[in-house]
Design a protein that fits this description.
Elements lengths: L10 H9 L5 H19 L2 E4 L1 H16 L11 E5 L26 H8 L3 E6 L28 H11 L9 E2 L13
Parallel strand pairs: 2-3, 2-4
Antiparallel strand pairs: 1-3
Helix pairs in contact: 2-3
């Protein structure tokens, strides 16, 4: 039986490898960023890729883990958040014209907690407008990789597809935010 490719490993698998120093946060982050660069132009799951921040966080996590300061199961694991989560210094638009170009000067609570846990945020995932309705045509619309001619429901488009296509790690490596995750617009 062949080894599971790095980009399809679960958070649990990656955490064990990172904790045991069999895999470095820098190595897995670079692998995921490469995968995103190769695959996401077709699927459009990311609104913003935070490559430089991810690399810096991965280097910080690697140094801390090497020094014996392992923070837990998210330490050094690359993930993604929806573009509804405020990220200091990074555009957060929520797929709405009202927030187009908005750059928050603080991190939302979930991002603060992920950063405190040592998670590596790869970027911000596309979502329906304000996580409440359909897709805003002025923003990228994620593509259903299984059936490209079908629309994309919020949960598969923003969470499951990056995972299924090896562009985000873990079973649920992205954080669902908002009341409509597959409620108002079920998956195709």
């Amino acid at each position: 039986m062949s080894e599971t490719p790095l980009h399809f490993k679960t958070i649990t698998e990656l955490a064990a490898l990172i904790k045991g120093k069999a895999l470095s946060p820098v190595e897995v982050t670079e692998a995921m960023l490469t995968r995103i660069q190769e695959r996401d132009p077709q699927y459009q799951s990311y609104a913003t890729v935070m490559a430089e921040q991810a690399r810096a966080s991965a280097q910080t996590a690697e140094r801390a883990i090497a020094a014996g300061n392992y923070l837990g199961s998210l330490h050094g694991v690359p993930i993604a958040v929806k573009d509804l989560c405020f990220t200091k210094g990074v555009a957060t638009m929520g797929a709405t014209k009202a927030l187009m170009g908005h750059v928050p000067d603080f991190d939302c609570t979930v991002v603060q907690k992920l950063n405190a846990a040592g998670a590596i945020i790869l970027g911000k995932l596309n979502l329906t407008e304000g996580a409440m309705a359909g897709y805003n045509p002025e923003f990228q619309v994620p593509v259903n990789p299984g059936v490209p001619t079908y629309g994309a429901g919020p949960l598969p488009a923003a969470l499951a597809w990056p995972r299924q296509r090896g562009c985000a790690t873990g079973r649920w490596a992205a954080i669902p935010v908002g009341p409509s995750d597959s409620l108002l617009l079920p998956a195709a």
